[in-house]
Each structure stands twice: as C-alpha cells, then as structure tokens.
Design a protein that fits this description.
Order of helices and strands: HEEHHEHHEEEHEHHHEEE
Number of strands: 10
Structural class: alpha+beta
Oligomer: single chain
Mean pLDDT: 82
Largest sheet: 5 strands, mixed
CATH class of the largest domain: Alpha Beta
Distance between the termini: 39 Å
C-alpha cells in the first residue's frame, strides 16, 4: 500500500456498522451517503456528518466544508482545547465566501446584513486569534488573525494569499467601524501586514483540507503552552501531527459510538420531551407547503428525534 502526503495509506479500511461504505447497488450507496452518521455539537449549532463525508475521507478524496468545520472547531475549541475558547475564535467555512462577495459589493445592504450576522453576537477584537478557513478554487488555505498581524498558510504556494489578505482586511476595517466607530481604527497593509509562515507542502492536489487541519493542530498546541506565542515563532517543529485520514475516521467513529450509547441510556419519551417536540413541529410547519413532506432531525434533552410533517399537514415524531 502506498502512503499519501497526509500520512495515510491509499487503501483505507472501512468503519464498522453505519460507517461502512460498501453496498450492492448505486441506490444503496446514495442513500447511505446522504444519511447522517453522527452529530457534532458545538456551542452554537450542530454539524451533521454523513456517510458521504466519511467516504470522502476514506477514499482519499477532497475534504468538504462539513469535515473542515467540525475538526477545526474540535481542534481549537473542543473538549481537549476548551481553555482556548476565550482566546481563539473559529469562523465557519462559509464566512470567507460572504466577506469575499461583500468586498465586491460593500454598499449593498443585503451583503452588509449577511456579513453582520456572522459577528452579530461576537466581538472578534476581544480574541487574541481569529481562525478563518478559506476555500479558493477548490483549494483550502488557513488564515489566522493574530492582532494585528495576518498569517496565511498555504500548502501549495498559490498566488491567492495577497487577495485573501485584502478581503480579510476589508472585513476587519468594516467591523471595526461598526463596533468602535469613535476610535477611527485603520487596518491596511501597514497596520495589518500579512506574513507567510514556513509550513509543510502537500505533494498532490487532494490533501489541502488535511493540511489546514494539521496547521490548526500545531497552532493549537503552540498557543496552549505559550500565551504570547506568535505563529511565525517556530510555527512548525519536528513533531508529527496526529491529523491523518484514518485519525479523522477514528474520531467520527468515537462520536458515533458516544451518540449511540447516549441514546441507549434513555429510550423513553417524557412529557417534557413531547412539549419541546411540539414546538419543533410548529417551527417545521411554518416552512411546510401542502403537497410536500418535510423532515428534520432534532435533539431534545440529550435524545435525538426525527419529526415529519406529511403532505396533508399532519405531523409525527419518532425517537431515533
């Protein structure tokens, strides 16, 4: 078996149970791909990891937004690095695309509102570091704001970093005007320079997603042990990153087992559950149209339910 640039083997063993990706027909493949394997919960929201996400990892394919979002949060704000929550703010993968469009249309009210939603309840200037995953031409790049410097880590040395820096600076300038209009803060090439730390390079066109997770892990290790650490200060050392494709699958399996064990603990639907489910059903009915079926998976009191509004408007739920 050949070794890929992320340290995994070219032939991945499938996970047991629901994570197994083999099936007899293409239809079965598709159904299994789209089904949710497990949920990853963070402070504000939940990500659903599907069979398709697992297949991408196992088959050495390009890693998508869901996996990047889940593991960046787990690496930088998860249980093992919970002490970094007050110091590091992790943006969603869709954030960069919105501020990219915003730079092209800064006066459009709709774009302003869309960008503001990302930071409506957050003051990014109160964090030491802001981590921004960037997707440019199907290539993942990691940007880190460490006030007042912007670090861009690119495992392929593309020509995108300068443009990325300009887009991020534009957003930071706008946000400073919104949050602190009386201070007249200025963020440009002089006051917020961009630095390109020396980082490992991928040897293919597929593993960029794995590499930015490696960068994030190394970054988390450094700042966890040094409050004053700056990314250009020996950003990478000889210590091998544990982030590989097999490791990602291993973590997903752990979360899947934990979710299953949690469901086994309580399989009864209580009165309190039913009250909360009724609220979820009413929310689903608001977006329901006659002649269609709407389904949603929800978590209530640590248990997972699927609620469904049928074509005739009647609703039902079941414990998963």
């Amino acid at each position: 078996m050949q070794e890929t640039s992320d340290g995994s083997t070219s032939k991945q063993s499938s996970l047991n149970g629901k994570l197994r990706h083999g099936s007899n027909t293409e239809k079965e493949h598709n159904n299994k791909d789209l089904s949710t394997v497990c949920l990853y919960k963070k402070d504000k929201g939940t990500y659903g990891i599907t069979g398709r996400d697992c297949r991408r990892i196992a088959r050495n394919e390009w890693i998508n937004d869901t996996i990047i979002n889940v593991f960046l949060h787990w690496i930088l704000n998860g249980s093992k690095m919970s002490k970094l929550k007050s110091r590091v703010y992790v943006m969603d993968t869709f954030f960069y695309k919105d501020i990219e469009k915003f730079k092209d249309n800064p006066n459009e009210q709709g774009m302003q509102n869309r960008v503001r939603k990302w930071v409506k309840k957050t003051d990014i200037f109160k964090y030491q570091h802001v981590v921004i995953p960037v997707l440019e031409n199907c290539h993942w790049i990691l940007a880190i704001i460490s006030w007042p410097v912007l670090y861009v880590l690119d495992s392929l040395n593309t020509n995108e970093p300068k443009r990325i820096a300009a887009i991020i600076r534009h957003f930071v300038q706008y946000e400073a005007q919104q949050k602190y209009p009386e201070e007249n803060r200025v963020y440009n090439e002089n006051t917020m320079p961009v630095i390109y730390p020396n980082c490992p390079k991928q040897q293919d066109n597929i593993n960029c997603g794995v590499f930015i997770l490696k960068f994030a892990e190394n970054f988390a290790q450094k700042i966890a042990s040094n409050n004053n650490f700056q990314p250009h200060d020996a950003f990478f050392d000889s210590e091998a990153s544990k982030i590989t494709r097999p490791f990602l699958l291993k973590m997903i399996r752990i979360w899947w087992l934990q979710e299953k064990q949690g469901q086994v603990k309580s399989k009864e639907t209580t009165t309190e559950d039913k009250q909360k489910l009724e609220s979820e059903i009413q929310n689903l009915k608001k977006v329901h149209r006659n002649g269609t079926v709407k389904k949603r998976r929800v978590e209530v009191n640590g248990k997972f339910f699927q609620i469904e509004v049928k074509k005739n408007g009647k609703a039902r739920f079941r414990l998963l």
